[in-house]
């Protein structure tokens, strides 16, 4: 896909097109600068949004680990404010901001890397025909590394939010956790994180990409090229919210396991899953749908806005290559 674009720009006929791209965009699609700025977009989109919803995340985690005390979203907020005041709702903001900023850097940056890499390996025609599989493979590969970056801060966050009296700040939690369990305290939740985040991210990216494609094809009354930047960002937000609802559902059982596992010492993921049972792993789903739906929409909106701000190439939804149309007899 990328190679074909480069070869066209190298030709004499493509010289004018090359100058146009140079004027419109700040860098080439697939360049190191492109990947780096996509990573910056990921830092802002994930770090800011996850930090903004820390109060809802705190209540959701407490509902998962102590459903007898925190019976619903509203009851959870009420109990938390009664015991800790309004400041208590912000517990865990520091590890949330640091951890999800690192995760966003890897998630969005590596997604662009793997999408282009796998697309070039498949070739233009197969990349179009198998585009959903391409999105799934690229996002799963990116999330594998993103979760390794997230795991230490996620472990600290859950301890701060769900164990009263354990630690109130990240500076208190980290040395205490290391003293009790060593480095394992920060990475014992990485496998459940993969269970939660890889399906979530595969849904997040594949569903988003295909929803954007469907919106421009069936809903938006004019081609993307004729839409203003603002109109394009509205489509991004809507597609992001739709993707977020599905993300929350597919990843919630593993999220429940992660919350309980990071709270308890000496438990394994399989032991926690067995103890929670089918009904137990779905506790807090409604809160998570609200949180993840809003989060995912805002993340895509911020990420796309960063691309617009830095004048990064933003390819339109994929169209069938001319060579494939000829093979299928769709052109005269």
TrEMBL record:
List the GO molecular function terms: phosphate transmembrane transporter activity
Q: Which UniProt keywords apply?
A: Membrane, Mitochondrion, Mitochondrion inner membrane, Repeat, Transit peptide, Transmembrane, Transmembrane helix, Transport
Q: Does the keyword Repeat apply?
A: yes
The subcellular location is:
Mitochondrion inner membrane
Membrane spanning segments where?
233-254, 285-303
Reply yes or no: does the keyword Transit peptide apply: yes
* InterPro entries reported in the protein's UniProt record: MCP_dom_sf, MCP_transmembrane, SLC25A3/Pic2/Mir1-like
Q: Main localisation, per the record?
A: mitochondrion
The residue stretches assigned to a coiled coil in this entry are none
Instruction: Give the catalysed reaction(s), semicolon-separated.
Output: phosphate(in) + H(+)(in) = phosphate(out) + H(+)(out)
Q: Which Pfam families match?
A: Mito_carr
What SUPFAM superfamilies does the record point to? Answer: Mitochondrial carrier
Solcar repeat segments:
33-117, 130-214, 231-309
Q: Where is the signal peptide?
A: none
Q: What family is this?
A: Belongs to the mitochondrial carrier (TC 2.A.29) family.
Q: What does the record note on quaternary structure?
A: Interacts with PPIF; the interaction is impaired by CsA.
Instruction: Describe the task this protein carries out.
Output: Inorganic ion transporter that transports phosphate or copper ions across the mitochondrial inner membrane into the matrix compartment. Mediates proton-coupled symport of phosphate ions necessary for mitochondrial oxidative phosphorylation of ADP to ATP. Transports copper ions probably in the form of anionic copper(I) complexes to maintain mitochondrial matrix copper pool and to supply copper for cytochrome C oxidase complex assembly. May also play a role in regulation of the mitochondrial permeability transition pore (mPTP).
Could you tell me what this protein is called? Answer: Solute carrier family 25 member 3
């Amino acid at each position: 896909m990328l190679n074909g674009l480069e070869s066209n720009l190298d030709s004499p006929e493509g010289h004018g097109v090359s100058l146009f791209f140079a004027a419109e965009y700040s860098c080439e699609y697939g360049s190191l600068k492109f990947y780096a700025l996509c990573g910056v977009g990921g830092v802002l989109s994930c770090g800011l949004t996850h930090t903004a919803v820390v109060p809802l995340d705190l209540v959701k985690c407490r509902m998962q680990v102590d459903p007898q005390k925190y019976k619903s979203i509203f009851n959870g907020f009420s109990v938390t404010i009664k015991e800790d005041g309004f400041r208590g709702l912000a517990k865990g903001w520091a590890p949330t901001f640091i951890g999800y900023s690192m995760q966003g850097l890897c998630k969005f940056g590596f997604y662009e890397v793997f999408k282009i890499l796998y697309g070039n390996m498949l070739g233009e025609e197969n990349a179009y025909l198998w585009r959903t599989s391409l999105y799934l493979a690229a996002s799963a590969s990116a999330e594998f590394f993103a979760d390794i970056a997230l795991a230490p801060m996620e472990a600290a966050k859950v301890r701060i939010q769900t164990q009263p009296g354990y630690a109130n700040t990240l500076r208190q939690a980290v040395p205490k956790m290391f003293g009790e369990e060593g480095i394992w305290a920060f990475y014992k939740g990485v496998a459940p994180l993969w269970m939660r985040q890889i399906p979530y991210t595969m849904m997040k990216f594949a569903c988003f990409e295909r929803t954007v494609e469907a919106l421009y094809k069936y809903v938006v009354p004019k081609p993307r090229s004729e839409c203003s930047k603002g109109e394009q960002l509205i489509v991004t937000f809507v597609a992001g919210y739709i993707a977020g609802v599905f993300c929350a559902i597919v990843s919630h059982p593993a999220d429940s396991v992660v919350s309980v596992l990071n709270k308890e010492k000496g438990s394994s993921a399989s032991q926690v899953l067995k103890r929670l049972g089918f009904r137990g792993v779905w506790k807090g789903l409604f809160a998570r749908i609200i949180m993840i739906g809003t989060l995912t929409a805002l993340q895509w909106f911020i990420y796309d806005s960063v691309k617009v701000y830095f004048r990064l190439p933003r390819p339109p939804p994929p169209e069938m290559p001319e060579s494939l149309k000829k093979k299928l007899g769709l052109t005269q």
